[in-house]
Amino acid sequence: MVERQQVSEDAVMTRIGQAVMLLHAGDREEARNRFGVLWAELGSDGAPLHRCTLAHYMADAQDDPGDELAWDLRALTAAEAVRHTGDPGEAGAEGAAEHRDLPAVRAFSPSLHLNLAADYLKLHRHDAAGIHLRLARAAAAELADDGHGGGVRAAIDRLELRLREQ
């Protein structure tokens, strides 16, 4: 049963990755459609890391800033669910299973907050943008000093400059 669950989880991430490739190739509508189908399949009982990842990318596929914010908030909510169910002191197999996703959520956190800051800036909600920008910077301190970490930190710096200019 564990093997079947692992294959199923890999299939979900593969499907998310396929939709992300469509998004990056410029087919936003098809990416949105596939994300939407997968979101409906996952439901509220889906693995929080899957919901977080899916919502994070679904936000990028939105045309309306309010819709983008709603999906980024869903991603953050799912990330928080990973943190809460992943508490090492929590008893039960589910807590232990979710705990393995904590490193992925920690790596995602700077981008989640950065996206929320950008969303709020688009919506002219500067105070909320500033809050999430500070959270993004704090979370980015845990990222490695590699291309990804440097890229996220540079994006935070750029958004901070845009926020100051407004």
Please work out how many helical segments DSSP would assign.
8
The residue fraction in helices comes out at over 70%
Shape: globular
| Main β sheet profile | none
Number of strands: 0
First-last Cα distance: 54 Å
> What proportion of the residues form beta strands (DSSP E)?
under 5%
Walk me through what this model shows.
The protein is an all-alpha fold. The protein contains 8 helices and no strands. Helix 4 crosses helix 5 and helix 4 packs antiparallel against helix 6 (102-122). The chain is globular and about 40 Å long. It starts with a helix and ends with a helix. Residues 1-7 and 87-98 have low confidence and may be disordered.
Summarize, please.
By secondary structure, the protein is mostly helical. The chain has eight helices and no strands. The longest helix is centred in the N-terminal third of the chain and has 23 residues.
